[in-house]
Specification:
Helix content is about 20%, strand content about 35%. The chain has about 180 residues and is an alpha+beta fold. The chain is elongated.
Length: about 180
């Protein structure tokens, strides 16, 4: 009887160690990916003009990384239609794709693609990385607010380079959480 208890305890200890080591390695890999991000512009057009018409609906336009909430290299696709948001972060087609105000949306619950589930944990100064074929930009959170579900003013063009993240607020279909970051 004592032998069986010792064997069970040993198996449990080994399983716990395997889980802890796996989590440590996974977290170490995420930290390495974030540390390897290089912020740079690689636009070939010296005027910085990017033609919005080059993008096809539902095509991947970039990746989003938000270290604070362990969001690492998540695909961003053109469109905020339900089909797109069911597998990726969506880009508001009426916003810029690189310069100016970049508008993105994602679910925060109810789907496997709830990439913005934790954006409510972001605070002023937290980092957001946005990578496209034109380069990689780093933004610092400078505005966190609740907006009406029909208020699209946060997606209007801006003089500065900023990113706007929008998601629903659980339990209130009339409000959206809006997190904005300005390029550093």
């Amino acid at each position: 009887m004592k032998k069986k208890i010792l064997i069970c305890i040993s198996i449990i200890v080994i399983l716990v160690l395997v889980i802890v080591v796996s989590l440590f390695i996974n977290n170490k890999n995420k930290v390495k990916k974030v540390n390897d991000i290089v912020v740079e512009d690689i636009i070939n057009d010296p005027n910085g003009n990017i033609n919005q018409e080059e993008i096809l609906d539902n095509s991947i336009i970039g990746k989003l990384t938000i270290p604070k909430i362990n969001l690492i290299d998540v695909n961003i696709c053109e469109s905020v239609e339900l089909e797109t948001l069911s597998h990726s972060i969506g880009h508001f087609e009426n916003t810029n794709i690189y310069e100016g105000n970049v508008g993105l949306a994602s679910h925060n619950a109810g789907t496997r693609a709830n990439y913005f589930a934790d954006i409510n944990k972001l605070e002023m100064g937290d980092e957001i990385y946005y990578k496209t074929r034109y380069g990689t930009k780093k933004y610092l959170v400078d505005n966190i607010t609740q907006i009406n579900s029909y208020d699209w003013s946060k997606l209007e063009q801006t003089e500065d380079n900023r990113i706007t993240l929008i998601t629903c607020i659980s339990g209130n279909q009339n409000l959206r959480l809006c997190v904005q970051g300005v390029e550093k």
